[in-house]
UniProtKB/TrEMBL annotation:
InterPro entries: G_TrmE (IPR031168), GTP-bd (IPR006073), GTP-bd_TrmE_N (IPR018948), GTPase_MnmE (IPR004520), MnmE_dom2 (IPR027368), MnmE_helical (IPR025867), P-loop_NTPase (IPR027417), Small_GTP-bd (IPR005225). The keyword Cytoplasm applies. K(+) binds at residues 232, 251, 253, 256. Keywords: Cytoplasm, GTP-binding, Hydrolase, Magnesium, Metal-binding, Nucleotide-binding, Potassium, tRNA processing. NCBIfam families: mnmE_trmE_thdF, PRK05291.1-3, small_GTP. Its main location: cytoplasm. Exhibits a very high intrinsic GTPase hydrolysis rate. Involved in the addition of a carboxymethylaminomethyl (cmnm) group at the wobble position (U34) of certain tRNAs, forming tRNA-cmnm(5)s(2)U34. The lineage of its organism: Bacteria, Bacillati, Cyanobacteriota, Cyanophyceae, Acaryochloridales. It is found in: Cytoplasm. One of its GO terms (cellular component) is cytosol. SUPFAM superfamilies: P-loop containing nucleoside triphosphate hydrolases (SSF52540). One of its GO terms (molecular function) is metal ion binding. This is tRNA modification GTPase MnmE. One of its GO terms (biological process) is tRNA methylation.
């Protein structure tokens, strides 16, 4: 249930023990100032004006115990993030100060905010559009500068704008058609060809926006890349060279890596989670057996498999056995140890047009590896007309509905169905577009969208 009249409170900063030197507790609502005044003790001669920081202490009004030394920032309605009275208490970081201050706020009548409730209020009170609010969640979760840039574009309204425009044009069309339903005799007949062209244009614009979904997904969630291959081909060496760390243990003993080792990288703006895995082979060793099983799992769940081959050994039966179940997966062949004398690899290279050569122990071939990965990623992807925006899953699904409805309008025209049929589908498209921009929203949709936010946002 959305309740706007209440005053909500939450910790607005990350709660990580012994990290972060400052923690913020935030209040929003009609009682924000009154609650803060009951628990804050500062200089008497200082007035509470909007956006003026006050220095003082948070004191428990019942026991008179001093809880923390703080800075207090009032942002008075409508000049605040939520457009309500907001008071921020900038406390010492860590676990205790913020939690105790939050408890005090709750004991004074504030309600613990639901996840995303501050931002929800910003939307309901007209500060933010829905797409802007969704961009905030993306911005907070961004794992690369490009992902952050994309979210910021959404926050600035660049996503809502073209969709609103499409919706407005649909509304114009609807008005034109409905006029014929009501006053058919007084108006010239509908220019069907013109409507068909207008619909084509709108469908095309929707397609361009829809084509940003893949890129958005990629920038938001990134890629999971699994390094797999026989024992000792140099998988862990590759992980280390790539991440420029000693993350994984490297020895000349086959079966060194026993478990999946993860590392996070950013390549060409795409966050990449790299998984080094245990070398795959038949083994009686109980621990290694489990490791090999985990390798298979990692390979099957990865967006891209880096299949590492020992250049000196060439393509062996063991390689074939590992490759067999991975055949149909997106896969890049990494031929490692090219610094050593190698047999003729031409037949293998012909079989794998997507390959790179590396000498992981020496750190060579990493740039080429990244290049090859980016090429694979961008292959077959619709070019997004240089839009710097990208839609999320919810927006994609809803815009697809709008696209289908507009297609059905065209079909209704083609089949010469009565005008009512045109308007039904046109209305459905308008509703779907409005669900993306927030112009047509139900409470349950809002609840679902904002439940994915973190508390305090
Ligand atoms: N301490 C703190 N930092 C923060 C936030 C916050 O809530 N608190 N934000 C929260 O996400 C973001 C900034 N967003 C904000 C948006 C509007 C206003 C605000 O007070 N707007 C008023 C005043 C503008 C002015 O003086 O010109 C207004 O628009 O009327 C504050 C923060 C990031 N940093
Ligand atoms: N000459 C040469 N040796 C390499 C290269 N890459 C790795 N090695 C060596 O190969 C041996 C095995 O390397 P690892 O990285 O542990 O191989 P792995 O595939 O992770 O092995 P497991 O975890 O046991 O499956 C080590 O002695 C490395 O130093 C390379 O490019 N050239
Ligand atoms: K090894
Ligand atoms: Mg290893």
């Amino acid at each position: 249930m959305i309740q706007l009249g209440t005053t909500i409170a939450a910790i607005a900063t990350a709660i990580v023990p012994e990290q972060g030197s400052i923690g913020i507790v935030r209040l929003s609502g009609p009682e924000a100032v009154a609650i803060a005044q009951r628990i804050f003790r500062g200089r008497k001669d200082r007035a509470w004006s909007s956006h003026q920081v006050l220095y003082g202490h948070v004191v428990d009004p019942n026991s008179q115990t001093v809880i923390d030394e703080v800075l207090l920032l009032p942002m008075l309605a409508p000049r605040s993030y939520t457009k309500e009275d907001v008071v921020e208490l900038h406390c010492h970081g860590g676990l205790m100060p913020v939690q105790q201050v939050l408890q005090l706020c709750l004991s004074q009548g504030a309600k613990l905010a639901q996840p995303g409730e501050f931002t929800l209020r910003a939307v309901l009170n007209g500060r933010l559009e829905l797409t802007q609010a969704e961009s905030i969640a993306d911005l907070v979760g961004a794992k690369s500068p490009q992902a952050a840039q994309m979210a910021l574009a959404g926050l600035q309204g660049k996503l809502a704008q073209p969709i609103r425009q499409i919706r407005a044009q649909c509304l114009d069309l609807l008005a034109e058609i409905e006029a014929r339903l009501d006053f058919a005799d007084d108006l010239p007949p509908l220019a069907e060809a013109g409507i068909h062209t207008a619909l084509n244009q709108l469908l095309e614009e929707l397609e361009i926006i829809l084509s940003t979904a893949n890129r958005g997904e990629l920038l938001r969630t990134g890629l999971k890349v699994a390094i797999v291959g026989r024992p000792n081909v140099g998988k862990s060496s590759l992980l280390n060279a790539w991440s420029r760390t000693d993350r994984a243990i490297v020895t000349d003993l086959p079966g060194t890596t026993r478990d999946v080792v993860e590392s996070s990288l950013v390549v060409g703006g795409i966050p990449i989670q790299v998984l080094d895995t245990a070398g795959m082979r038949d083994t009686e060793d109980q621990v290694e057996k489990i490791g090999v099983e985990r390798s298979r799992q990692a390979a099957s769940q990865a967006d891209l498999v880096l299949f590492v081959l020992d250049a000196q050994a060439g393509w062996t039966e063991g390689d074939q056995a590992i490759y067999e179940p991975l055949k149909s997966r997106p896969l890049l062949l990494v031929i490692n140890k090219i610094d050593l004398a190698t047999p003729d690899l031409t037949p293998i290279l012909e079989q794998f047009p997507c390959h790179v050569k590396t000498a992981a122990a020496q750190g060579t071939g990493i740039t080429e590896l990244e290049q090859a990965i980016l090429e694979q990623v961008h292959q077959g992807q619709v070019t997004a007309a240089n839009l710097d925006i990208a839609i999320n899953q919810r927006q994609g699904a809803t815009l697809t509905q709008a696209w289908q409805s507009l297609k059905q309008v065209q079909q209704a025209i083609a089949e010469q169905l009565p005008l009512d049929f045109w308007t039904i589908d046109l209305r459905a498209a308008i509703t779907a577009l409005g669900e993306v921009t927030g112009e047509e929203l139900t409470e349950s949709m809002l609840a679902r969208i904002f439940s994915q936010f973190c508390i305090g946002k």
